[in-house]
Amino acid sequence: MKNIIDFNCPKCGSENIRKFSLIYRDGLSDLAGRNFHGTSQTVNSQIASPPFSPSQFLRRCCFFIIPLLFLGHIGRSPIFLTVGIVLGVICAIACRIYASTIYRDSLQIWNNTYLCQRCDSAFILGHDAPQDDW
Predict the structure, then answer these.
(1) 15: alpha, beta or left? (left if phi > 0; alpha if psi -120 to 50)
(2) Are both 42 and 79 inside the same structural domain?
(3) Which domain holds residue 28?
(4) Which of 51, 68, 69, 70 could be a cystine partner for 80, CB 3.0 to 4.6 Å?
(5) Sequence-distant (≥ 6) Cβ neighbours of residue 15 within 8 angstroms
(6) 122-134 pLDDT per residue, tens
(7) Are residues 32 and 73 in the same domain?
(8) Do residues 97 and 73 share a domain?
(9) Are residues 63 and 111 in the same domain?
(10) Cα(24)–Cα(16) distance, rounded to whole angstroms?
(11) Total tally of structural domains belonging to the chain
(12) 26 and 72 part of one domain
């Protein structure tokens, strides 16, 4: 027997639902003019944006900048370098844990989240209860 997913809002039963990723993508616009260029984003697109992903650059910065800050501002003692390196390693590990577990789970939830266009409730497809107001 196949599992049939109900594409209706669990709160009001409406079939008029949209996926968060579509709301996010539809709210982005590239702007270009004679002396400017950039991206415009609607409020709904900002609200439905994907979870934050730490980049490789952020991890490298955490690993190298913290020891430099300790060396430059506190003194020449090797204890400060050691503390800075330890803090840098902790920061890099925390970014790695976030990227491998929390971000992955958050992205999966975001990919399965829908918004009802009728009652404005957000819900995860396949779950009965609507999520808190988005």
Answers:
(1) alpha
(2) no
(3) 18-49
(4) 70
(5) 7, 8, 9
(6) 998 876 655 655 5
(7) no
(8) yes
(9) yes
(10) 17
(11) 2
(12) no
Which residues have a Cβ under 8 Å from the Cβ of 70 and sit 6 or more positions away? 80, 81, 83, 84, 87
Distance (Å) of CA 96 to CA 37, 62, 63, 77, 91: 34, 12, 12, 29, 9
Structural domain includes residue 6: no
The total of other beta-carbon atoms located within 10 Å of residue 48's CB is 23
- What is d(CA 84, CA 102) in angstroms, rounded to the nearest whole number? 26
Overall pTM surpassing 0.85 (yes/no):
no
In this structure, what token pair is assigned to residue 20?
């968060």
* pLDDT digit string, tens, across residues 16-72: 999 999 999 999 888 888 888 888 889 989 989 888 776 755 766 666 666 666 665
Do 96 and 34 reside in the same domain of the chain?
no
Contact present, 133 and 121 (Cβ < 8 Å): yes
35/93 same-domain check? no
Pair of tokens at residue 91: 């920061």
CA distance 107 to 96: 15
Please indicate, yes or no, whether residues 96 and 69 belong to a single structural domain of this protein: yes
Q: Would you give the DSSP letter of residue 77?
A: -
